[in-house]
Structures are given as structure tokens and as C-alpha cells.
Design brief:
CATH class of the largest domain: Alpha Beta
Shape: elongated
Number of strands: 21
CATH architecture of the largest domain: Alpha-Beta Barrel
Structural class: alpha/beta
Largest sheet: 8 strands, mixed, barrel
CATH topology of the largest domain: TIM Barrel
Mean pLDDT: 87
Low-confidence stretches: none
Distance between the termini: 108 Å
Helix content: 40-55%
CATH superfamily of the largest domain: EAL domain
Oligomer: single chain
Number of domains: 3
Length: 569
Amino acid sequence: MLHLEDNREDQELIKRLLSQAGIVCDITTVESHAEFLNSVENQSWDVILSDYSLPTFDGFRALALAKQKSPSTPFIFVTGTLGEDIVVETLKNGATDYVLKQKLTRLSSAVRRALSEAAERKNLLGAEAALIRSGEEFRFLADHDPLTKLHNRAYIHDHLPSMLTSAVRHEERLALLFIDLDGFKFINDSLGHSLGDLVLKEAAERMKRCVREPDVVLRLGGDEFLIVLTGLRDSTDAAMAAERIRRTLEDEMLIQGNSLTTTCSIGISVFPDDGADGESLIKWADLALYSAKDNGRNTWRFFTKDMNGKAAQRLSLEYGLRHAVAKDQLFVEYQPQVDLRTGRIVGAEALLRWQHPEMGVVSPATFISIAENSGEILRIGEWVLRTACTQARRWQDEGVFSMPIAVNVSAVQFRQRSFVETVKKVLNETGLVPQLLELELTESLLLTNSNVMATVMNELTDAGVRLAIDDFGVGYCGLSYLMEFKFSKLKMDGSFVKSIGGNSVGPSIAAAIVGMAKILGMKVLAECAETEEQVQFLREHNCDEVQGYYFSRPLSAQGFSEMVRSQCA
């Protein structure tokens, strides 16, 4: 509290009265114009008390200074002489109240009322400010993503038509880049949504640094982004931008102590070449994105006209897959795995097939990627695992076959937190011992957060399940991964086996792969063996097992049983 008063006795009296009334406060007393001015300029006050008549300074001037420097601070006159006209004038000019020194019993109530009213005004102003901020935030969120602060889908819906009009007026091209972060769901599932949000924010910042000021970066939702490139001369500019973004996003991210690598797939449509309206351009860019994903991800693709037909087929297959399990259209075949030394069957690989009601038998190469992108692979993958384990147990009970059954595992399945529990549940329900189940994983799966992968693999091997690395030699897996993970078997990709007998370096690579696996203590199985020459070469170079048409095509469960029984006859 600031008190302007030149009478020492009045100063002490007012301090005593306020204290007796239970008003706890620090009172600073000033007596001159200079002291008062310095006080209101350099400090904030909850309330100001002021005498009206001072030798060299009067209360009216003090009121004017207070309202100028601190307009919201309550100002109360405490004086012995104050006529009615002066009272009215001071109240008009901003005084809160007045108390005559002859009636100081009113002082405590006047101070309390002034403080209460000031607090109410402060709360009201705060509420108004919050309302203004809320309105501004609401307007911001109407066309911005709250996480990344990028523009959102509503913005592009409202502004893309005018951007296309501008491109026509300036005779320029415009491109849409539809971007999806590869494997982002795995980051969310394995490391949590909070860390996933930080990855999205980092990706957004990197994209913004890759484009020019007139270009627009948007987040459509989830891990999907859209970039509008304006003022382009030709499609080459869009390709250069896409490649720049792809390379920037594949650089390592350090998020909360986690070293993460994420890549992206990009679909590109160009105005006016691919469409005349925003809706079509977005749709075509989305189709091109699917093409990029189907071509191995971490790449970009321009929209082409034939993608329309492919898109229609894709939608048809995706719809069919949703009902394939319930309609009993899926089935499993089993391809023998043969010991090269003895020539006897030592295992089987379960291979998924789809009997489409109109298209006939659809190749897994056609529908697996669709199942992965749509999420149907989770249901289908568990169905395959259960079917294979059930059949292996049935063969065991019939005395036909008591050897490992190999089942392919999609990266989407493996990245689920519940995957290990799913495997254990299937083994428990089918009664198959874990040592007779071999899960086949691709090289690319190992490149996504090796720490998490190692944890899942260790849990599986600790449970007794075998692990094999599939299609080895065509991915990017280094020796360090083979040394780190507990693989019992390495499956050499069929492309090296098919090269045996030719003039390429394939045979030398095949021999080197076998030698390397032996050093690491793993068995080697060669896929796609079709000729005597290939089998003989693999036998001479100490390959352990082989699988392919030379010995047998994939067979029905009944056909496989008959083949095994014929060996035992």
C-alpha cells in the first residue's frame, strides 16, 4: 500500500487502524511529489491512500499521476478537508472512494471494498483476455493442426481452388506431394504415442525446411502429410523437391535419447497435367503414394493414368480380403524342406493362398501388401499361424511328421506389442511345442529400431520358438544384425540359387553366404531350387537344406502327408 501523507501522527494512526482491522499489509509512506512520482513509476501497488491537502503538492495532482501510471490501482482519499464539489470531481476523475479523517472507522471497510472490486476487475479482465485468446486459438485451430502447427485438411479445402486459379493466371504448374511416414505405426506401438508425437513434429519441421516460402506444408492426420508446391516450371521441380524431402526424412532422428530412423513414401500429382480440380489432384497423389509403397517404400512416384485401373483392382481386393477369412477363401499349402545330405524331408513352410471367387487363386505377391496397408494382415496372419500350428500338431498326433513348421511373419504383425502373447496363445491352444515352430522374418524388418526388435526376438527364443531370416541377400541387413539376433536358420534368396549355372557372380555370392552362415553357427536353406545342377552346387558348398520345385511344389496338407509317408515306406 502506498500512503501519501505529510503528517507523521496521521501516518501512524492509519497504520494502527488497518492493523487492528486485520488488514495485513506493507505500507510505504511518501510526503512529496518526487517521492510519490518515483513510487508509482517504479512499483505496482494494491491500493493508494492520499491526503488531499499537502504543503507543496495536492491530492488532485496525485490522483492524475496515479491514473496515468497505474490506472487500475484503487485510489482512496483520506483527508480532513474535502468539500462536496471536490468529492464529485475526484470521483469523476477516477478516485475509488474518500474517507474523512474525522470518520476513520470507515477506512477499513473502504480499503476492503476497493481491494475486492479491484480483484473482481482483474478477474474480469483476465476472463476477457482468456476469451480473446480462446477465440484466436479457435480460429487458428480451424485450419491448423494442433500438434505440428501446420495447416490442416480444412485449409487445403478452402484455399486450393484459389491456388489453382493463380497457377492458371500465371501459366505455371502446381504439384501435390502426398507423404506417408513408413513404419510410423511401429514407433507408436513400441515406443508410445508421446514419442510418436515428437517424431511427427520433427518430421513436420524437416519438411518445412525443404520447401520455399510460397509452398504449403499440411498435416492431413496421423502420419499423412500434403505439400503444395507452387510456381513450378515443369514436373522436374516436383521430383527434385520430393527427393529432397525423402532424403531429409531418412536422416537419423534423436528423440528423447532414442536413435530413430524413419523413411517416407511420396505420391505426386501435377496440375494441370493430372487434373483440373483439387479433389482429383489429391486423389491421384494418394494413388501414386500407394504405388510408391508397393514399390518398396522410401521412394516417390508420379501419378500415371494406368493407376486408375490398378486402384480399382486394389479396392476390390481390399474389400475381398475383409471377408476372405469368414468366407473360408484362404487356405494354406506346405512346401517340403529337404536335407541335402540325406535327401529326406526335415521341415515344411506354410504358404498362404487365396481362392478369390472371381479371380481364381491370387498370388500372395498381389495381396499381402494390400493386407499390410489395410491392417487385415493382423487377422490373416494370426489365422495362418493357427492353421499351420494346428496342422503340424495333427501330423504329430498321426505319426506322420514331427519336424519344424515355418511360418512367414509380416513386419506389421511383428511390430504389435501383443505379438509374442499371440504366438504363445496359439501354441498353447493348438498344443504344438514351441521348438517345432519357426518364424521367418525378412531383412528389412531388422532395420526398424533394432533395440525393440531384439527384445521381441529374445522373448520368442526364450519361449523356445525358432527364428529364421528369410530372403537373405536382397535387403540391407549387415553382418552386425546376424551377430546380434538369435537366428537358427538363414534362408538364401532364390535369385542367387537361380543364377547357378550362369556366368554371373551369383554362384560366388551363394557360396559366400553359405560360408558366412556357417561361421555364425546358422543352418542355411536355399530357396527356389529347380534343377539338378543347382542342387549339386549347393550340396558341394555345404548348404544344409533346400526348398523348391526340384523336390516338390507346395502341397495340400493331404498331399504333404502322402509325400512324407512315401519316404518312410
